C-alpha cells in the first residue's frame, strides 16, 4: 500500500514533559483551538450553552463524553470530497456522561436526583446527551470553527430509529414491543471507538451498553435458566440491582420501561415487550454522515460484544475486505471480519454509500484470535461449520444469527485467548500490520484466585503490583500488540510492539520496551494511524500513572512484527517458585520514533483522532475533564477537579466539559513532521 504522502522517517517535534496542569500541553511550534464542547448548539435556533444545568434541547446540542471521531471532507459546493482539507464534517461518539451515583450532575441545575425514581425530565436530558453527532467544521482566516447553521449538523440518540442488518436481522432474539419483526431497534448507546469505511461512511462501536439495562432478581428462576439467562450473564447483565442511571424509573412510557428487560407484556408475536431490548445493542453501527435521510444500520455480521473501533485492512482490488475489532472487557477477545464480496475500486466513490455497507458488511466470516507461545497465532472461524461451536456444552447455538448475537459465547466455545481488555486497533498504512491496544487488566495475576483471575500468558505476559503501589495490580499499564496476516486467512504472526510502563520501573518484568521519560505512558486506549504521515497516534485512559501525569497522546513510527525477539519473563510466585512466560517483544523504540506529543487537562481521557487529508490539522477529543468532581461540590467551582475548557476562555460557566480540539503546526506543515 502507498500512503498519500511520503511517510515520516523521524518525528520532528520536541517531546513534551509529563504534566499535572489543568490545561492542554502540546509541543513548541504547534497551536490548538477548542471548537466543539458539550452543549454547543447545532442549529441557529438553539441558544448558546449557559453551562449552569438549565440548558435543554440536547437533541440540537453536542452530546457528552466525546469519544471516537472521523473526518469527512466537503468541497466548496458542499459535496463529499476525499481531498477537502479546509471544510468537512466531524462525526463522533458521545459515549457516556460524568455521573455520581445515578445522576449526570453537570447537566442538572442542582446536580439532579441520586435516588429512585428518577424524574422523567432528568432522564430525558440524560438520554439525549448520549449517541452520536455530526457537525460541520471549516477554516476561515486560518481559524477552524464549527458551522452552527449547517444543514449537515445532526444528533443521533438512544431513541433514534435504527435498522438491524446482516444475519441477526429479523431474528426472534430481536423482537420487542417496539420491533415486532426484529428488523429494527431504538438508538445506539455507549459509543466508544470508531472506524471509517473505504466507501466513506462512519462506523461506531457500542461498548458498555449492558449496564444501562436492569432486570429483577427473580428473573433467573422465572425464566427457568433458559438460553437467554445464560446469554445475559455472559454479557454482564446479572439479575437484580439498578441500571447505571435508573432510566427505567422515569415513567411508564416505553422509552423508560425499555431499560428494564424483565418487564413482560403482551406482544402479538409471543415475545415479551422488552426482554430483547438488550439484544438490540452491542454492535458496530454504520451511519452516512453526509446524508441524514439514510437510516443507520447495525452490522450484526461483525458480532456483538463491548465494541471499540473497527479498523479496515488496506483494500486490495479483487480481494475481500478485512475489519479488525476488539471486545473491551477484562479477559475478552480480539476479532476480525472478512467480507464475502471482493473489493471493487469504483466502490470507493459510490452513488449510495449505505448500499456498500450492505454489500461488504452483511455477508462474510467472523474470526476470533488465539495466540501461541512461538509468535504464531490462529484466527478461528466462528460459524456453524465449526464443530467446536455446534458441540459447545455451554450454550446451544441455533444458527449464524445466534453466533452474531452471542459472539462472546462463540469465542468461549473455540477456546480463544482471553486478553487484557482490547480497546482501539489500527492498521499501519506502510506495512499493513494490525495494532491493538490492550489497555490494562486488574484480573491478571501470577497467583490467580477465583474464576475471573488469569495467570500471565504469552500475549498478556505481565502481572505485577503498580510500581508505586497506589493504583492497581495485574497489568495496570497495558500493552500494544500487533499482528501480521499469514499465508492463509486463519494464520498470523504477532509480537508486542510496546509495553506501557513508568520509565523507572524494572526493565526485566515491567518496562520491557525500555521507555524513557519522554516516552513513558500507561493504559493505551485510543490508537489511530495517519494515512498521511504513517504516524501511529497512541492515546491514554489511565488510572495507574495519574498521580504523576494527566492522560496523554504519543506519536510513534513503528517498525514491523518480529523486529525484536522472544523474551522469557520469570515471575516470582508467592510460594517462592517462578512462573516463566515466553513472550515476543518488539524492538526498543528509538528517541525519534516514539515521543509524547500532548498531555491533557485534569481528570480527562484523550480519545478520538482524525485528520484533514493533507495531514496538516488533527482533531482529538478531551473526554470527561474533571470527572471526579463531587456532586456535593457543584456550587463551588473552586472545588471542581478541572475547570477546563472554561479556564482556556471557552464558553460560559465553570463546569468542565468534554470537547474537541484541533491542532495545527505554526509553519503550516504536517502534524508530527
Ligand atoms: Fe470506552 Fe473501552 O473505552
Ligand atoms: Ca476507549
Ligand atoms: Ca479505556
Ligand atoms: Ca502509579
TrEMBL record:
List, as start-end ranges, the regions of compositional bias called Polar residues: 440-455
Q: Which InterPro entries match?
A: PhoX
Q: Tell me the segments the record calls region Disordered.
A: 440-460
Kindly name one Pfam family recorded for this protein: PhoX
Q: What is this protein called?
A: PhoX family protein
Provide the species name: Iodobacter arcticus
PANTHER family the record matches: DUF839 DOMAIN-CONTAINING PROTEIN, SLR8030 PROTEIN
Q: Quick one: signal sequence residues?
A: none
